[in-house]
Amino acid sequence: MSSLRFFTKHSSTSLFSSFLLKHIRSMSNIPENTVYSGPTSQTPNQRTTLAQLRQKYKNLKPISMITAYDYPSAVHIDMAGIDICLVGDSASMVVHGHDTTLPITVDEMLVHCRAVARGAKNPMLVGDLPFGSYESSSDQAVDTAVRILKEGGMDAIKLEGGSPSRIVAAKAIVEAGIAVMGHVGLTPQAISVLGGFRPQGRNILSAVKVVETALALQEAGSFSIVLECVPAPVAAAATAALQIPTIGIGAGPFCSGQVLVYHDLLGMLQHPHHAKVTPKFCKQYARIGDVINKALLEYKEDVMNGSFPDAHYSPYKISEADVEGFSNELQKLGFDKAASAASEAVQKLNATK
User: What pathway is this protein said to act in by its record (predicted)?
Assistant: First the structure.
């Protein structure tokens, strides 16, 4: 920019200087009218903020949250006006095909985060810290959280569990200036300890632990808590005990908001394997998977019987006169078969119009 300042300062034509500035701005990724004249991944006037979420919570207005893992799903969530978009480590299962959330890496999560950040301009964006990326130390937790925001374009992070080390990690991340969403109840990253995907809070000790863990995460500075797969009365008790919003998933209707996995609520994965693991708590608002399967089968049939593509879906034209000239040139080159194919193609397309 130093050469630009020199040029505009010493140019004798202010009109040309103004034109040059506008031209360079149009070529740059630096937006106009920003405080530090640097690129920004969000529009402050549009993005849902913590203050807005707190106001909804204070006014007892339910908070909506959905997972997203790529640009198209993020755009749909954005258009629907969802409050929070979670880039969940559930991508490990619904996108990458693993049986658990454990295999997904930070680098893989960052790819999903960046894609979602490009598509969802209005919701608050929360990125999951994947298994193995924050458990070792507070320094590791903060470093990973920083990457999720700086490299992934997220507004906040989510971490699972309420063990003492994870409470310490949550506090350290908050103290580093990063908003944290907690997650208690069924925590998929802890299936090794839990013995599988098992609901929590189904007896007195377990129910009390759910509430105590949520309170500990609140004390650590979390702005919200996800309650997953706990009985509705336990979720109601936790919600009443806390002074921050709870987001339920399989936790009944008494939470401050609700979250579902994008693919689950849309019925995207209508195949036998997924049918066996579709959560009981998930309402399917569509059966998009059936629509996709039907469309793909119809496409295959059209290709096999030659009905696609027809003349309507062959939009790039060449005049019959040019085809004739093209065929003549091919014949001169000794490509008689190719010349005949070009001529026959014209006749066939005309016949299907």
Answer: Cofactor biosynthesis; (R)-pantothenate biosynthesis; (R)-pantoate from 3-methyl-2-oxobutanoate: step 1/2
